[in-house]
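Run log, item B.
One chain of 74 residues. Sequence copied directly from the ordering sheet:
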Amino acid sequence: MMDRLENNKDKIVGKISEKIGKVTDDEALELKGKLMTMKADASNMVLDMKDAVLEKANDLIDTIKNNKDNNKSN
């Protein structure tokens, strides 16, 4: 949860930096903002994939456990 909050903060700061860089014609600041935004987006995608893998792994373990329990009761 904290990772997502940090990523969202970085995304907001990145967008603000990008806009300030555009307005002030500071290409370095604009690039830094774009990179911050991209990094935050990529980090959120990794967290989404991690959550999906954990969910599937838990589902698989539950299925195996339920099958094992059903076989014991037969």
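Observations after the first pass:
- The radius of gyration is 21 Å.
- The CA atoms of residues 11 and 53 lie 24 Å apart.
Flagged for discussion on Thursday.
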